[in-house]
Amino acid sequence: MKTINLTVNGRIFELEVQENEILLDTLRKKLNFTGAKEGCGEGECGACTVIMDGKAVTSCLILSVEADGSEIETIEGQSIGEEISDIQKAFIEENAIQCGFCTPGMVMSTKALLDRNPNPSDEDIDIALSGNICRCTGYYSIRNAVKRAAEKKGGN
Amino acid sequence: MLNKFDYFKPTKLEELFEILDNNEGESALLAGGTDLFVDMKHKTRKPDYIIDVKGIKDFGKIEERDAGLFIGGTVTCNEIIDSELVNNDYKILADAALEVAAHQVRNRATVVGNLCTTSPGADMFPSLLVLKTTVLIESKEGSREVPLDEFATGVKSNVLKDKEVVKGLIVQKHAEDGKGAYLKKRRTKGPDLSGIGVAGYLSKAEEYLAFALGAVAPTPVYVDVSDLLFADGSFEEKQGKIVNRILDNINPIDDVRSTKKYRKKLSEVYTKRILSSLWEAGDK
Predict the structure, then answer these.
(1) A20 in B contact zone (CB under 8 Å)
(2) ipTM for the whole complex
(3) In chain B, how many domains are there?
C-alpha cells in the first residue's frame, strides 16, 4: 500500500492505494466519482477521460500511484450545484448526447481543449476528441457542440 | 486487474540502477504506460516490480545539443507535436507523432517508449530513421550509443540488455533545405495502428535521400537511396530504381491490418508520392 495525495475537482484527498490500482478505479470505487466510465480499459474509447494536471488522459491506463500529487478534474466538477457548465449545455443544445456513456469523456476532452485553445478549428476539435468514441450520435453534432461551447465561453 | 507488483520512482539514474540490483524477478520500466498496462491487462507481461522513470528530470527534456536534437526518455508524443524547436527544424517528427494513437494517449505515450516497444509498425520509427537517430543507453556499467537502424532486432525485440535504460535520443540536425514527409495507411479515419508507414527525407545540400518503412518487415526498414537520386539520368529512371531498391528491402506479410500484396503496392505508391512532394517539379 502507498499513501497518495490527489486533488479532485478542487477537493484534497489523502488515501491509501494498492500499487496495482488503476486511477479510474480509485476515482470510481474509492472516491465515488463515477462519471468517468470504463469502456475498453485499454485507452481506445476515451470513456474514462479525465483531466490530469491540465491534460486530457485516459484514466484506465494510469496507476493511482503515478497520479500522486496531481490535480484531477472529472465531470462531477463541471457543474456548480444544479447549474451545469457551458460545455454541458452546448452538448444538450446540439443533441450531442444519446445514451450518454461517452459524454463525460467527451466533455472532459472538450474542457481540456478549450482551456488551452479557446478558438479551435474543426481540425483542432477532431484531433482533441480523436480518442473519444461515440456509438450513438455520429460526430457532427459533437463537433458542433464543441463549437457552441467555444462561443458560449467567449471564443470563436 | 493488474498483477501485484512493487512500484519505485527514482529521481536519479544511480538510484534506478540500485533498484534494479536490489530486486529479484521481472522488472518493467514505466514511462507512459500505454503499452505496458495494456500488456499487463492481457497478462502477456507480469512484472514483479515497476520502475517509473518519470521522476528523473533529464528524461523530460527536449533540447538542441551540439550533436542534434535531444529527446529525453519520458518526452511524450504531444510534447513533440507542441515543441517549437521540433516544428521549426524537425517537422517530420511532429507529423509522425500526430499519427500515434489518439490525443489522450499521446499525452502519456512517449517517443522512446514507442521505440522500446519495437512494434514493426511503430509510428515514430520511420521518421527518426530517415533523420538518422542515435539511441543513448545507460547502465551501471556505463553509457553506450546505438544507431537507431541497429536498435530493433525483431518483432517487439531490440538490443536493450537486462538492466539497461534508454536515457534519450539524439536526432541528427540536417542542412536548412532538408524536408521530410510521413505517410501512413490505416483501416479507419480515426486512430489506428499502421497498415504501412513510409517516411522520406531529402536534403539536396547534403545530397541525401532516404526512406524508412514500417509494418513491411519484422523490423522497420531503412533504405538510403542518395546514390540513386544524385546520379545521372532522368527523374523517371531514378524513381524506378529507388522504388526497386525499396521493394528489394521489404518483406511484408498478410495480417489483420493489411495484406502482403497491398503493402507492396503502397510501398511503391507512397515512395513515389513522397519523392514527388520533396523534389520540386522544376528539378526534374
Answers:
(1) yes
(2) 0.96
(3) 2
Q: Are residues B14 and B108 in the same domain?
A: yes
Contact A20 B2 (CB under 8 A): yes
Q: What is the CATH number of the domain that holds B198?
A: 3.30.390.50
Q: Which of A77, A100, A121 is the last residue of a domain?
A: A77
Closest alpha carbon within chain B to A124: B103
Comparing CA positions, the residue from A26, A66, A19 lying closest to residue B30 is: A66
The DSSP secondary-structure symbol of A95 reads: T
Per-residue pLDDT tens, chain B, 284 aa: give them.
Answer: 899 999 999 999 999 999 999 999 999 999 999 999 999 999 999 999 999 999 999 999 999 999 999 999 999 999 999 999 999 999 999 999 999 999 999 999 999 999 999 999 999 999 999 999 999 999 999 999 999 999 999 999 999 999 999 999 999 999 999 999 999 988 887 788 888 999 999 999 999 999 999 999 999 999 999 999 999 999 999 999 999 999 999 999 888 888 999 999 999 999 999 999 998 744 54
Residue B9: name the closest of A67, A121, A134, A55 by CA: A67
- Residue of chain B minimizing CA distance to A125: B103
On whether any CB of chain A is under 8 Å from the CB of B41, the answer is yes
C-alpha cell at A117: 485553445
Q: Say yes or no: A49 and A111 in one domain.
A: no
CATH number at A143 reads: 1.10.150.120
Say how many C-beta atoms besides its own lie within 10 A of residue B273's C-beta: 15
- The CATH code of the domain that includes A15 is 3.10.20.30
Instruction: Establish if A38 touches chain B: CB-CB under 8 angstroms.
Output: no
Q: Does B30 touch chain A (CB under 8 A)?
A: yes
B120 and B222 together in one domain: no
Most A CBs within 10 A among B11, B41, B52, B103, hence the mutation to make, goes to B103
Residues 6+ apart with CB under 8 A from A105: A36, A37, A45, A46, A47, A48, A49, A132
